[in-house]
Amino acid sequence: MKNEAKTIKTNAARLLDAASIDYELVPYEYSEDDLSAESVAAKLGEDLDQVFKTLVLRGDKNGIFVCVVPGSMEVDLKVASRISGNKNCEMVHVKELFALTGYIRGGCTPIGMKKPYPVFVHESALLYDYIYISAGQRGEQLRLRPSDLIEFVHAGIYPL
Fold first, then answer.
1. Model confidence over 78-128: pLDDT tens digits?
2. 21: CATH
C-alpha cells in the first residue's frame, strides 16, 4: 500500500519555526512494507549517508537516550554505551517507542519527543551542509543544517 506524498506541518516543524531555525519539509511516498533509510534516500534521490535515522536506546545506568546515525550505519552498542555513560545498552523495542517518544517506527525524530532525552549525533553529519531526519511522521523528512539540529536538541557528537 503506497501513500501519496503531501506536505503536512508536523510538531517538529512547528518547534523549529518557534526557534527560528531554517529547514525544509520534504514529503515522500512511503510503504509500510519498507520504512528503511535506504528506501527514504532512494525516494528523496539523496545520498544514504545524508539521510539520518533516529534510534532510541535504553542504558543500564542512565535510561533512555537517542542516537542519530547515517542511514548506511548501524548503531554500535558498545560505543553508544560509552558515550551515554552506561555499561550496556540495547535498542528500545518498537512496541515501547510511541509511549516513550510520542513517535512511531519510521516517523521518529529527535525533535519534540515526550521527554528531553540525551541525544547523540554521529560526527559524519558535520561533513554536510544539510542532512535529512524524520519530521515526526512517516512520509515527511526535515532537511536542515546539522549544526542547527545539534544546537536545538543539545546533542553530543560521537564518536568522541
1. 999 999 999 999 999 999 999 999 999 999 999 999 999 999 999 999 999
2. 3.90.960.10
- Which residues have CB under 8 Å from 36's CB, separation 6+? 71
| 73 touches 91 (CB < 8 A) | no
Which cell numbers in the block locate residue 56?
A: 532510541
Q: What is the DSSP annotation of 12-58?
A: HHHHHHHTT---EEEE--EETTB--HHHHHHHHT--GGGBEEEEEEE
The helix/strand/coil state of 76 is: coil
- Yes or no: say if 134 and 44 are a contact pair by the CB < 8 Å rule: no
**Single-letter code of the amino acid located at 84:** S
Domain that holds residue 127: 2-158
| Backbone Cα Rg of the chain | 15
Domain tally, the chain: 1
